[in-house]
Amino acid sequence: MGARRFWSWLWITLGALYFLVPLYATLHFSLQAKRGTLSLLAYQNVLADPQFYRTFAFSLQMAAATIVTGIVLIVPTAYWVHLRLPKLRPAVELITLMPFVIPAVVLVFGLIRAYSRPPLLLVSSPALLVGGYTVLSLPYMYRAVDTGLRAIDVRTLTEAAQSLGASWPTILWRVILPNLRVAVLSGSFLTLAIVVGEFTLAALLAWPAFGPYMALLGQNRAYEPAALAIMSFGLTWLAMGVILWIGRGRQGGPSELTGTH
Amino acid sequence: MAFLELVGLTKTFGATVGVEAVDLAVERGEFVSLLGPSGCGKTTTLRMIAGFEQPTAGRILVGGEDITARRPNQRNIGMVFQAYALFPNMTVADNIGFGLKVARRPAAEIHARVSELLALIKLEEMGDRYPHQLSGGQQQRVALARALAIRPQLLLLDEPLSALDAKIRLSLRNEIRAIQRQLGITTLYVTHDQEEALSLSDRVVVMNRGRIEQVGSPFEIYNFPQSHFVASFVGTLNILPAEAVDPVAGIVRAAGQRIAAPSGLSGMAAGEQVMLALRPELLTLNRRQGMDNHLEGVVETIAFLGSIVRIQVRVHDALIALDEFNNPNLDLPAIGDSVAFGFPREACLILDSAG
Fold first, then answer.
1. Residue B131 near residue B168, CB atoms below 8 Å
2. B84 vs chain A: nearest CA distance in angstroms?
3. Do β-strands B318-325 and B338-343 pair in parallel, antiparallel, or remain unpaired?
4. Candidate from B76, B83, B139 with C-beta closest to A156
5. Contact at 8 Å (CB) between A168 and A104?
6. Residue B118 Cα distances to A259, B84, B155, angstroms
7. Closest-approach residue (CA) in chain A for B161
8. Which of A164, B262, B269, B339 sits between 20 and 30 A of A144, alpha carbons compared?
9. What is the pLDDT of residues A28-82, one digit of tens each?
């Protein structure tokens, strides 16, 4: 038992070191902007750059639009597949996995080709960027919503709401969506993380987004990109923390209780 | 005219017939149970009335109005599900008030109705709780209150007690019946539990393989089953192969004995193979005097079932169960003893051998 415990801890420690050592090295490097001493100069430089705010704000807006589009598109689709078309589930899952197979660069050239001439002249519209981001975030959002739907008795809840006079929009808005709160939130945060750091689509469609800004900074500066990486990492962990906080204590609680026991 | 009418209601799933030409009339305020084994079509019938399944053929009329093509949310039919189906994101009060909110009733009216229903189900203090904070029995009471809140013209209950333990099931059963009587709401109740159906209902509809086998009061269904299926599904029944000897006088031959059954076996000819069905509680051990019939056999098993003792006696090829009321002075035979038991002619049910 003791030997087993030892090996378990050894592997956990090695795994943790594999992740933490580069992180620590990046953090340490980001604090060395002032020669001979540790300082927050690189962070100050990043935060003092108006481009940082402009690009970050733009990416946040795009992320918000992508999240809304994703929810509007995916929640009703996944709900309908669960309720009425369960046989189509493998096909839909396959479609949602396509962004893993098709590289972003192929997607963006396809988008440019398809939407660069009338009547679908959209290359200069942020809608095309949001559309591209929606495709990229599809696997994450769909999977999160699908998992949420599996945890509730979709059919019975729908029928109960119908028998009480509810229409389809009411059922979706008041019954299904609130019970997918944690699922939709986790899908949204994953989408946020993808959109904020995305480079290919934004660069090739020529939008001043945060991804291209980080790449540009990496080419011209030494310590600031490391500071940015740490800040992005902190942001991601904050997002994860928010998901955990919102979903706290829900084991067997409302989101999982389906009344089928 | 009946309040709820099912006319030739049929539902097929591909080549499978789920419900076949069901005709049923339910009076206003009546409590009717659909009773049958799994897959007999009782739930499908209920789901068609609720609007969750579209009939392949036939019509559904409520209050003389044809609602067959109406969507479920436009039928004003309350439904209680086996799985409770409470909305997990809403409190008990919000669950009960959901239908009224959907109907855009004023907040004051919703509040008053919710309070009224919480009192009806005796959960006045639990309005702010969430479903997962309630027991199964409490959840099902809330589901009942939610279904009643919209003042439905018809209440449907789909095996509402199946997920509960025996004690709760019994108390909730009585509660459901009391509430139904108090409100006088026309109710259709689906169950596979014969005791539940018999104890709750004004009338019982026994279904088998998508068809109605028999409709009648619990007394009629239990005492005068019209088919082999009903007789064997409702209660315990001993079946003996028999031969009609004198159908007019009601005489048959079973296990080598001449048995006097109720006279006038309609539609049967002498020499025809029939089934003699006997309820265990109507057979009396070691008593021939005053009995129209008796049979002999060897005791195979004796089982104590609490208030009754079930004795199984081998009579030729058939195993016959006899129920005796338990009491400390009961003189029981031993396994292997030869015994005789008697029964009156009224205890004999003669069924078509085809079932």
1. no
2. 6
3. unpaired
4. B83
5. no
6. 20, 16, 18
7. A261
8. A164
9. 999 988 888 888 898 998 888 898 899 989 999 999 999 999 999 999 999 999 9
- The 3 state secondary structure assigned to chain B is CCCEEEEEEEEEECCEEEEEEEEEEECCCCEEEEECCCCCCHHHHHHHHHCCCCCCEEEEEECCEECCCCCHHHCCEEEECCCCCCCCCCCHHHHHHHHHHHCCCCHHHHHHHHHHHHHHCCCHHHCCCCHHHCCHHHHHHHHHHHHHHCCCCEEEEECCCCCCCHHHHHHHHHHHHHHHHHHCCCEEEEECCHHHHHHHCCEEEEEECCEEEEEECHHHHHHCCCCHHHHHHCCCCEEEEEEEEECCCCEEEECCEEEECCCCCCCCCCCCEEEEEECHHHCEECCCCCCCEEEEEEEEEEEECCCEEEEEEEECCEEEEEEEECCCCCCCCCCCCEEEEEECHHHEEEEECCC
Low-confidence ranges of chain B (pLDDT < 50): none
Interval A201-211 mean pLDDT: 89
Q: How far is CA B37 from CA B18, B166, B194, B225, B326, in A?
A: 13, 19, 10, 16, 30
**Dihedral, B140, B104, B3, B57 alpha carbons, nearest 10:** -90
Three-state DSSP class for residue A209: coil
Interface mutation vs chain B, best among A152, A154, A162, A163, most B CBs within 10 Å:
A163
Distance, C-alpha B25 to centroid of its chain: 17
- Whole-angstrom distance, CA of residue A25 vs CA of residue A15: 16
Q: What is d(CA B265, CA B350) in angstroms, rounded to the nearest whole number?
A: 8
Residues of B in contact with A165 (CB under 8 A): 73-74, 76, 99, 102-103, 150
Instruction: Name every chain A residue with its beta carbon within 8 A of the beta carbon of B132.
Output: 252-254, 257
Spatial distance between the Cα atoms of B3 and B218, rounded to a whole number of angstroms? 21
pLDDT tens digits, residue range B105-121?
999 999 999 999 999 99
B31-35, strands of its sheet edge to edge? B77-80, B154-158, B187-191, B31-35, B203-208, B211-216
Mean pLDDT of chain B: 91
> What is the residue type of B336?
G
Three-state secondary structure readout of A29-97: HHCCCCCCCCCCHHHHHHHHCHHHHHHHHHHHHHHHHHHHHHHHHHHHHHHHHHHCCHHHHHHHHHHHH
Which whole number is the average pLDDT over A172-197? 90
Provide CB contacts within 8 A for B160, sequence distance 6+.
Answer: B80, B81, B82, B140, B143, B144, B172, B176, B189
Residue A151 touches chain B, beta carbons under 8 Å: no
